[in-house]
Amino acid sequence: MRDFASIAEHVTKSLQGKNTGPWSLSVKVHRDVNQIMRQAVVKDSRFLYQVALAQQPGQVYCMVDGSVVVEAEKEMEIILSRLKNLWQLRQSVVVEGTSYEIGDFTLRVANILLGSAYKGLLLEIDYHPCSAPNVASDLLREFVENIVPPTAQLSCEYEYDYESVGLSNHEFTTAHTGYQYMMLFRNDGLL
């Protein structure tokens, strides 16, 4: 797959993308302390996923094991840190990258580093004219194919069952983006 520098060059030179500055996100995974204390098998543990997006600095998005996605104020992080008798922080990662505007799209690109270990390249794409989830899947797939070489090994989902986690299937919000990150990090075993 193209690395960060070659994608940045391709986006700015070939696609006339405009660098709009840095962006970041953080993902934290907490494990249910009750499961740990009972010495349950790790696969039986419950996990709480927490995502904070730079584009929504006052908000965090949380989900326990695929249940409802909850949008909360940033103070939720403080509350979770004080609930050490219920939830223990298992891992966290901060992903920092660059944002680009390319016509009707916003592309965010970053390397995923877990400590010093490289886990891959992250691409986030927003298509501005569409606000309904799962409607522009083919267009997003085509856009990704224009960014990465055909030999790239991709791990991506273009459609989700948002209603199963309490999100709208009619109006896309930042909570949807948070959920997508939770699923990416969960399904790909990045944390």
From TrEMBL:
<comment type="subunit">
    <text>Component of the Mediator complex.</text>
</comment>
<keyword id="KW-0804">Transcription</keyword>
<keyword id="KW-0010">Activator</keyword>
<protein>
    <recommendedName>
        <fullName>Mediator of RNA polymerase II transcription subunit 20</fullName>
    </recommendedName>
</protein>
<keyword id="KW-0539">Nucleus</keyword>
<comment type="similarity">
    <text>Belongs to the Mediator complex subunit 20 family.</text>
</comment>
<dbReference type="GO" id="GO:0016592">
    <property type="term" value="C:mediator complex"/>
</dbReference>
<dbReference type="GO" id="GO:0006357">
    <property type="term" value="P:regulation of transcription by RNA polymerase II"/>
</dbReference>
<dbReference type="InterPro" id="IPR013921">
    <property type="entry name" value="Mediator_Med20"/>
</dbReference>
<dbReference type="GO" id="GO:0003713">
    <property type="term" value="F:transcription coactivator activity"/>
</dbReference>
<keyword id="KW-0805">Transcription regulation</keyword>
<comment type="function">
    <text>Component of the Mediator complex, a coactivator involved in the regulated transcription of nearly all RNA polymerase II-dependent genes. Mediator functions as a bridge to convey information from gene-specific regulatory proteins to the basal RNA polymerase II transcription machinery. Mediator is recruited to promoters by direct interactions with regulatory proteins and serves as a scaffold for the assembly of a functional preinitiation complex with RNA polymerase II and the general transcription factors.</text>
</comment>
<dbReference type="Pfam" id="PF08612">
    <property type="entry name" value="Med20"/>
</dbReference>
